[in-house]
Amino acid sequence: MTSTFQYAIQCDRLQQRTADGPQIWATLMHNAQRVPLEEFEDACDLSGLLEEGESLDDFTCSDPGTGAYRVEVGSECAYFIQTSGFEFFFTPDGVVPSFIEQYPPDWDEYRSSALARLLLPANHPLLQGSWGLEGDEGLNDEGLQVIRSESGSVRYQIHQGDRAVAGIRVDADEVSEMYTCRDKRREGLATTLMDAVRRLHGPLPFSSLSDEGKAFKAGYHRAKRLRQEVDTDFDM
After folding, report:
1. The pTM is what?
2. How far is it, in rounded angstroms, from Cα 23 to Cα 29?
């Protein structure tokens, strides 16, 4: 296969030195699909990125979470490799990307909160390989979106239409993280998630949580005790 994509720019320069750079970067990231490194190497001429005598393995050796992505927006296409917290973009003829779409819903939330990234699709570039290579298993019997990682952890999401509004991650038989969109809090979504996860996995403990998570944990157990008391009174 002929390498038709040339090195264009890296992410920080794209955002800081080009007009509409942050919006272009958001468009590229949100439309990215993870691809095998072999596809990236076949499609892209790496000579503009690597030093003389340097291999792609040399370039990425410090980051085991390195991933390659293809972006398609309309008739436009680009590739990038993400390693050590940076994206390096390749386009036809090395022209700096100029794809622009409206910022995705909840984009500011994803950028400002690591926990909000529980709501992202499998292998989204904003995750930067945090949980290893993931596979989307679709909806389970509880109506939750299931995203399983090769590392053994699993994410569950509640979707309303095309939007993920609440998410939870189970790792090493513990609830490690959970998050609800800011505009959807106090609607019982976290409790719905927790109840479903416990039906699937049993009475999992909570691992270390944020202050919000600790508050939810206390409230969840308090509500559970109240439900049990009501059930007991009803039985009597």
Report:
1. 0.85
2. 10
